[in-house]
Write a structure and sequence with these properties.
InterPro entries: Phytyl_CoA_dOase-like. It comes from Reinekea blandensis MED297. Pfam families: PhyH. Keywords: Dioxygenase, Oxidoreductase. The chain has 254 residues and is an alpha+beta fold. It is built from seven helices and 13 strands. The protein has helices at residues 8-17, 27-42, 51-54, 77-80, 82-88, 91-101, 189-192; strands at residues 19-22, 48-50, 71-75, 106-108, 115-119, 127-130, 143-149, 160-162, 196-197, 205-209, 214-216, 225-234, 251-252. Strands 1, 2, 3, 4, 5, 7, 10, 12 and 13 form a nine-stranded antiparallel β-sheet that branches. The longest helix is centred in the first third of the chain and has 16 residues, at 27-42. It starts with 7 loop residues before the first helix and ends with a strand.
Length: 254
């Protein structure tokens, strides 16, 4: 995939807001990737994350209930489809990431995200405000995820809602609950009032900082939402030994 370099304005936008939408940047691969994703979704195989196991609001209460086998994420996407891995470690993706991370070398960490994200119409759930970095273990919290929208994403089908600039904030522990969800309380209202719904079209690519506060509702439509998501670090930001972040070996990005 040939993709233009990011402009200085785009790089500055990412650094100020914590995210950047590259409209249509994945259009040439969309049909093929959507086909592969639908195949994976129709005949899911482990490793996976089930809605019922996570237990967020709206999810089935157990795997024994109707919809209890609903998949939330099909994990290890780079091992499922070689074409996905080729794209996720490609020169084009690497070029974007090196620009926004201001680094010479980037690694894909397969232990976080690295998934086909699915949001089903009937049994999906609501995810509260959080930062992805909350359960990750690296020398620094400065990671970036790349999100490939395989269909339209909006507030109607569980698309992302973000708080621009929140990746730069130094929050205190009392602003989060014991699961590291950002509390919807008066003390956080100044941030919550800045929330912005992201509308992605099929083939759009979203870059976002792992410290960016974001949430997503359940899917209120009759079509499953599918996205590919991968997470990256700079060469000088290694995962901490003997943590989940270091479990599987990383992939070099071109």
């Amino acid at each position: 995939m040939n993709a233009p370099s990011l402009t200085a304005q785009q790089i500055e936008q990412f650094r100020q807001q914590g995210f950047l939408i590259l409209s249509g940047a994945g259009s040439d691969l969309l049909t093929r990737f959507r086909y592969l994703a639908e195949q994976e979704h129709r005949q899911p195989t482990e490793p996976w994350e089930l809605e019922a196991k996570l237990g967020y609001p709206g999810a089935p209460e157990s795997t024994e209930q109707p919809g209890g086998d609903t998949v939330r994420r099909l994990l290890q996407a780079t091992s499922r489809q070689s074409e996905w891995q080729q794209w996720a470690t490609s020169k084009a993706v690497g070029q974007w990431l090196r620009s926004v991370m201001n680094t010479d070398a980037v690694h894909l960490n397969p232990n976080h995200h690295n998934c086909l994200m699915t949001k089903s119409p009937q049994y999906s759930s609501d995810t509260g405000w959080h930062q992805d970095i909350r359960y990750w273990h690296f020398q620094k919290p400065e990671l970036v995820s790349v999100w490939f929208a395989l269909g339209e994403e909006s507030n109607h089908n569980g698309g992302l809602v973000v708080i621009p600039g929140s990746h730069q904030a130094e929050f205190s522990e009392h602003q989060f609950d014991d699961q590291r969800f950002f509390l919807e309380v008066d003390a956080n209202r100044e941030w919550l009032d800045r929330a912005q719904v992201l509308h992605l079209n099929a083939g759009d690519i979203l870059l976002f900082d792992a410290r960016l506060l974001h949430r997503a509702s359940r899917n209120h439509t009759d079509q499953t939402k599918l996205s590919l998501v991968f997470t990256y670090r700079a060469a000088d930001n290694a995962p901490l030994p003997e943590t989940r972040s270091a479990r599987l070996p990383e992939l070099a990005v071109q």
